[in-house]
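Structure in, sequence out. Go:
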């Protein structure tokens, strides 16, 4: 579904991603691990059109999409759940979710997808009128995922969805991501939590200093202290 070929990205003179190539097959969960500053968010921002690549190709369903603007990419079906959630704190949960559908005009589809979001996150339904800023970190992460789903993605880009959440909430998050995937969603998952990647992903790539340093199965990474220490600093 998604092929990255020799992708390089710079901020001014500083090259942050170098010659990154990998693929995400339709229906799969691919994880991208890496320590702070490795370039993970830059990679997702490049795929969602927030950052323009310096060179290389990105192919989505056979179409070249590198350098397209964010709006066109959302329309094409690539939707990002940003790092740090970025919910609108003073808006209700419901309005935050509907903002995700702002590129769409199909009223029936939007209302069907809103029902679907509340199926994934039943906990949000009775709180749909509450200001998102009043909710816990875990609930805000659910709002952020729900908002992305409201755009009608075919490829979901998730940037550290487990960050800052308690182990119990992380487990809930893992279950939801697994369900989304078994319902057909293709997911590129960025994580620093190796356990989350191991629980969910097939192919797993480790990004270090802007390059793909390692390709493996999530479960293998989790069991290899040398890899954890070398690439994730723990
Ligand atoms: N907008 C930006 N302008 C300049 N440098 C940036 C910008 N965003 C990130 N960087 C730098 O690029 C590198 C990779 O950052 P990032 O992609 O956020 O890494 P990660 O998500 O893996 O922590 C870091 O050194 C960071 O300081
Ligand atoms: Mg990041």
């Amino acid at each position: 579904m998604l092929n990255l070929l020799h992708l390089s990205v710079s901020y001014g003179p500083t090259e942050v991603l170098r010659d990154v190539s990998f693929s995400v097959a339709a229906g799969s969960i691919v994880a991208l691990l890496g320590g702070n500053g490795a370039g993970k968010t830059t990679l997702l921002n490049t795929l969602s059109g927030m950052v323009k690549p310096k060179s290389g190709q990105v192919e989505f369903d056979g179409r070249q999409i590198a350098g397209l603007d964010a709006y066109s990419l959302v329309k094409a079906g690539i939707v990002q759940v940003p790092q740090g959630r970025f919910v609108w704190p003073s808006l209700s949960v419901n309005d935050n979710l509907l903002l995700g559908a702002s590129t769409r005009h199909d009223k029936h589809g939007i209302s069907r997808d809103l029902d679907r979001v509340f199926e994934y996150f039943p906990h949000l339904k009775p709180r749909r009128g509450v200001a998102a800023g009043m909710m816990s970190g875990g609930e805000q992460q659910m709002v952020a995922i729900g908002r992305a789903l409201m755009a009608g993605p075919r490829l979901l880009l998730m940037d550290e969805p487990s960050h800052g959440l308690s182990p119990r909430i992380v487990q809930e998050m893992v279950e939801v991501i697994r369900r989304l995937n078994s319902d057909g969603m293709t997911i590129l998952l960025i994580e620093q939590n190796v356990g989350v990647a191991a629980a969910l992903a097939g192919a797993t790539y480790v990004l270090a200093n802007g390059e793909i340093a390692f390709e493996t199965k999530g479960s293998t990474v989790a069991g290899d202290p040398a890899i954890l220490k070398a690439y994730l600093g723990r």
